[in-house]
Amino acid sequence: MAPTDRELASILTGARTLAVVGLSDRPDRDSNEVARYLQEQGYRIVPVNPTVASVLGERAYPSLSAVPPDIAIDLAVIFRRSEAVPEIVDEAIARKVPAVWMQLGIENGPAAEKARRHGLRVVENQCTMQVHRRLQLPRVGS
Q: What is the pTM of this model?
């Protein structure tokens, strides 16, 4: 049930603010590299990590539900283990986040199905940076 390239492009071009769940402040970590790339492409990054105060110049929040409601999140990008996904999906549903994107190696069928039942768009086991590059999507606002 993998999304088509057209659906992937629609998710990424329709988003402006990305909550990156599990974003590390260590530049050598995949989450940091991907978030930095996405930030360079014009996306607003909202770090979600309870162990850091800020990442990439943005204030970090301990959970998706702790992000202030005045920050509209268009996409939750997940860099957590697959077993952590159900809680993140529940928070995304409660916040009415339109889509969740599980990075490479991250899948959780029951959580993905629950998200879909609640109207969220779902991507599993794909890298946002790789997809953005492969589809040659424009910078946000271009």
A: 0.97
For 20, the token pair is 């990156």
Residue type, 116: R
Q: Which of 67, 127, 124, 123 is nearest to 94 (CA)?
A: 67
**Torsion, CA 47, CA 53, CA 59, CA 65, rounded to 10:** 60
DSSP E strands in 3-140: the ranges are 17-21, 44-48, 54-55, 58-59, 75-78, 99-102, 121-123
pLDDT, residue 104, reads: 96
Question: Where do the structural domains in the chain lie, given as residue ranges?
Answer: 5-134
Please list the rounded mean pLDDT of every run of 10 residues in the chain (142 residues).
Answer: 92 97 97 98 98 97 97 98 98 98 97 98 98 95 75
Structure tokens at 75: 């996409």
pLDDT, residue 5, reads: 97
Q: Which of 72, 48, 74 is nearest to 60 (CA)?
A: 48
Query: In the CATH hierarchy, which top-level class contains the domain 5-134?
Result: alpha beta
